[in-house]
Amino acid sequence: MPNPFSVSEAQFSDLLTQIHDTITKYYISNPPKEIRPSKDVLQTTIQAEPPTVLQKEPLGTYATIQNLLNDLLPGIFVQSSPHFYGFVTGGALPPALLADFLVTMLDLDVMVHLPKDSIHTTIERHTIYLLCDLFQLPRSFAPGSTITTGATGSNIVGLACGREWLFSRDDPSCSIAKIGYLQAAIKSGVHNGIRIIVSKPHSSIAKAASILGLGSENLINLPASDAEPWNMDFERLESLLAKQQEDKIRPYDAGLFFSRHPDVLQRVFENPGAAYLATSGVDIVAPCNVNIENSRRFRALPIYAALKALGKSGYSALIRRLILHARMIARIIKDELYQYYELIFPNIDDLFMVVLFKAKDDTLNEVLAEQINATRKIWVSGTSWGGSKAVRIAAANWRVNLEEEGFGGVAIVRDVLKEVASFNSS
After folding, report:
1. Is 84 helix (H, G, I), strand (E, B) or coil?
2. Residue 248 falls in which region: left (phi positive, over 0), alpha (psi -120 to 50) or beta
3. pLDDT in tens, 281-305
4. Of 204, 293, 322, 367, which is most buried, counting CB atoms within 10 Å of its CB?
């Protein structure tokens, strides 16, 4: 009896060709010039969506992929465009994108270290070594490091480890991982909760504190030093996290966590009593015992591919390119469009990859992000600073260029900002 879930070689080849053509056009030969769909396209794609009730009879692989390519894809905005400035996201490097296709094909669960059967966990460990080299961290961090799902996952891991270390450092019997938060607090004499010291924290830290029961209101925000804002004593850090998509390494989703304390990491995240998940007598701990998830996508492979393809010098060049692109935009706002806009941080030489600005006209400033995005030529995110609304432009795509004109150039930003200002002043 034929397998009802299979697809013929001819159909599969045809679908792969269609997807290949779509990806090549979308990614290389003719990327979309408009970031978000028009209202008409959005309405059309919404109407083309499948019914909200699952149909009884199967649609089949071929028809389903046609539905995705022809009906749904046009209604999704283009976050991979270099002119998508909304978040520090998008623009996966070509080697990472291609490696991620292989990850989907392999369909691995990177959960247990099985050195006699596969090298996938060894690749993950070697990838962490390469990341240590890239970030100039000692490789001694590697045993206490893991690849997570993103910043929120990394912050949950970090705060969970910090909480465990705080309670059990003097008395191992006060382990929260073993006896729970309430019993550990009673036993250790901690009656007033935990305070988390931060400085300009990412919002996911508060979210992680909420998830862990530490309380999002228990963050104490310390101001950065005006004289030495980047004097952070990195050599003293106990742990470090990063988001891989924001480091321009791989497609969504991935994050990193590095720690000097592999014993604490394992104590918090081990799978007690699951003998089939344990690996003894090896130098690589089962990834499921140092991570939130047991079921883990092979996120290391695209990271490995990008690191090998670019090397240290390639990453330095990429970061430099993004910084200069952001500063070119800031220069346009400051020198050419100063009658309409003002930079939140006017010292352009201090800017990294994000430009914050606002409209001088209060009425326009209230709707500035929406007006910019309505042009569909670029996409920005709204934020607030100093009690008023502002716009955030983040240079985050390897395809940005340092020329005025062309795809990835800054001329389009100038044109859009002029268009929005002129429309509202007329």
Report:
1. strand
2. left
3. 568 999 999 999 999 999 999 999 9
4. 322
